[in-house]
Specification:
Blueprint: E1 7-12, E2 25-30, H1 36-43, E3 62-67, E4 70-74, H2 85-99, E5 106-114, H3 121-132, E6 137-142, H4 149-162, E7 171-173, H5 182-197
Parallel strand pairs: 2-4, 2-5, 5-6, 6-7
Antiparallel strand pairs: 1-3, 3-4
Amino acid sequence: MNFANAEFRAAYGSFEQLPPSDGLEIAFSGRSNVGKSSLINRLFGRRSLARVSATPGKTATINFYSLENISLVDLPGYGYAKVSKSDKERWNRLIGGYLNDGERELGLIFQLVDFRHPPTKDDLDMINFLIDSETPFVVVLTKADKLNKSERKAREESLKDELPCYEDLTVVPFSAVTDEGVEKLREIILDVKSDREK
């Protein structure tokens, strides 16, 4: 699979606009400014496939990308305080509607968490939802390059207590700067694709 062949397909601002699922979907979830756009761009070897913004909360739509017969789904960032209540409610309906849509062929969610900090309440709510709904997911620890060796070791130890069911989780440190984790995440995508094709 040539990951650089990923292409932007469409953006949808409300749940009602979402098209029916037409095959395997892999989604990216995380709080605002956790680095989803940077991860998507590095993963697919494209500088501006996903638009990177310095302003948290900028992605207010669900963005669909295509790669061969997989849909890559970038969910809006959650947890940013400086948006209106009505915007927050719309985002919640959009994300909740997508995740609870039993008709979708959702093969995996990459759940992004900032490696430098303990998971937020919103992060933990999302992870607990994924566990309870038995949705397959991988925790991606972003911004790994911003930690030195001792800070990283301390955060790794803390995460064992901070993340629910830690011993059962697949956890992948990632950096858009050094490319740490890129090949591992690509392997995971290929594994999900191959499992679906069996």
